[in-house]
Amino acid sequence: PTTFFTIANQKGGVGKTTSAINLGAAIASKNISCLLVDLDPQANATSGLGFEKEEGQSLYQAILEEEKADSKVRETSTKNLFLIPSEVDMAAVETELANSKNYLVRLRETLRAIKKSKRFKAVIIDCPPSLGMLSMNAMAASDFLLIALQCEYLAMEGLGQILSVLRQLQEAGVNPDLELGGIMMTMYDVRTNLSRQVASDVRQHFGKDVFSTMIPRSIRLGEAPSFGQTIFEYDPLSAGAIAYQELSTEVIKRFKLK
Amino acid sequence: PTTFFTIANQKGGVGKTTSAINLGAAIASKNISCLLVDLDPQANATSGLGFEKEEGQSLYQAILEEEKADSKVRETSTKNLFLIPSEVDMAAVETELANSKNYLVRLRETLRAIKKSKRFKAVIIDCPPSLGMLSMNAMAASDFLLIALQCEYLAMEGLGQILSVLRQLQEAGVNPDLELGGIMMTMYDVRTNLSRQVASDVRQHFGKDVFSTMIPRSIRLGEAPSFGQTIFEYDPLSAGAIAYQELSTEVIKRFKLK
Ligand SMILES: Nc1ncnc2c1ncn2[C@@H]1O[C@H](COP(=O)(O)OP(=O)(O)OP(=O)(O)O)[C@@H](O)[C@H]1O
Ligand SMILES: Nc1ncnc2c1ncn2[C@@H]1O[C@H](COP(=O)(O)OP(=O)(O)OP(=O)(O)O)[C@@H](O)[C@H]1O
Ligand SMILES: [Mg+2]
Ligand SMILES: [Mg+2]
What is the mean pLDDT of chain B? Predict the structure, then answer.
């Protein structure tokens, strides 16, 4: 079967895209076929993997006209890693879907054929920094929600909100099987009290839900996307590369991807 | 007269809220009355200034029912700095306004009485990480757009988009007087090539539009909001506090606030 993951958090700049790209690449490097769906109109996962932003390459039309997503899948420079790119027009989905029927499950319908084909073992959906139509559609289409959480105070503020959206989607019957897959701690800076404090608070609250691997703050992770490369292509021995490899081992084990 | 500023950037986590709070506080410390409007449903400026999130304290009702904003103004612990708080319900504005008439100038109408009263010399509006209804309303209500730009590659990606929204609002006659007020470089890390590279690229492209003050990456700026304090209350001699004081001097001069 194919397991669908949404990486979300309405707080901006917490490492959603960086995690989608590098967790996806690390999973793919272990011979597990992985599809990345860029659902953010900023299309950072698209440019971070070296793609230009072209009109018509995203799921925008497919979501609005209830078409299939298959033709949008592209190969990336990483073996076993595939991408459905995004584009600026995606932003229009937020308002255009607002009045249509079954507006929460449009993405799930669009990705249905991909799910049935079992072509990929894992699908990871990168979301914009909001809890609007796009992120809700991603969660409605997924088996697990992965929350990227920066080790800084402001990052904790919004956790309650995204977890209440998760509960609403379950209880409303939109996606009763959706579960919290885990919390990925990102930009952990071992030198600061704040990081340590936040990390220990989060573990106290969420226990086993928090992945034990912490992604360190590492400038190489910030540099890699400017070359359109994953961290494994850019600097495979960096602290960031090692951390995402470890995180992928945890994710593969927890969700039995192999 | 009162000068209205919007701090926006659809890229998340680039220092919009941190700049709104601390630039506002620095301006206020120079005896210039300043109102901060939190337009982000995450309400980080609200909690960063020590306020609880309470239902009904934001402009949500006032925007939808075309009422005045005056009664929502609160004093903060910083003299001359006032706040209109936000709340989670603000997120509903994105879809609820979509079908109403004059949906782009609703905030401008709500703040009209505040503008006429000349009670404040400067009004700073903090925006969510998107270019939806809330950010468009903020830009339609403002004299100047201030873009917070993180000194990292991914942060440059979206500049073209927000500048094209600025042009559209001007050319459509929604706000012909809106200008780009400046670009604030945030989280500058002098130790990394990436920061230096991004900063020099941006200055090459945008010249005088870029403020000469760069806000350094400083953990104290990340810690202050967890105590509900501005950087001046938390650690007035930190690099972050000094930089925001300097930035405020530039802003006051450039826009003749004194
Ligand atoms: N572990 C890390 N160490 C250092 N920099 C990082 C790390 N993770 C991400 N970054 C950088 O921080 C910035 C924010 O990361 P990213 O864009 O992945 O966050 P995001 O949550 O996807 O943002 P948005 O909310 O805009 O979608 C980027 O410039 C990225 O390169
Ligand atoms: N100069 C700085 N040095 C270090 N940390 C900073 C700095 N500026 C902001 N931060 C921290 O980085 C994170 C993002 O900053 P902030 O919340 O101000 O960005 P934002 O653009 O308002 O985010 P959002 O897109 O979610 O609204 C916060 O945890 C904040 O405390
Ligand atoms: Mg992203
Ligand atoms: Mg903010």
Answer: 94
Q: Is the pLDDT of residue A99 over 90?
A: no
Residue from the list B157, B193, B194 with its beta carbon closest to the beta carbon of A44 = B157
- The alpha-helical segments, DSSP class H, found in B124-238 are 133-140, 153-157, 159-171, 193-206, 219-223, 231-234
Establish if A201 touches chain B: CB-CB under 8 angstroms. Answer: no
In this predicted structure, the answer to whether residue A154 has a pLDDT above a threshold of 80 is no
Considering only A68-82, A151-165, A202-216, which range has the smallest mean pLDDT?
A: A151-165
Beta carbons within 8 Å of A179's beta carbon, 6+ residues apart: A143, A144, A145
Q: Do the Cβ atoms of A185 and A215 come closer than 8 Å?
A: yes
Q: Nearest to residue A72, comparing CAs of A58, A60, A61, A89? A: A58
- Predicted pLDDT at B110: 95
Q: Which of A37, A161, A153 is nearest to B53 (CA)?
A: A161
CB A104 within 8 A of CB A137: yes
- Chain A hits for B152, Cβ within 8 Å: 222
What separation in Å is there between the alpha carbon of B193 and the centre of ligand 1? 17
Residues within 5 Å of ion ligand 4, judged at the Cβ atom: B 16-17, 44
Residue of A13, A222, A223 with shortest CB distance to B12: A13
Tell me the per-residue pLDDT of B63-79, one tens digit each, with 9 for 90 and over: 998 888 999 999 999 99
B204 burial type by CB count under 10 A (0-12 exposed, 13-18 middle, 19+ buried): exposed
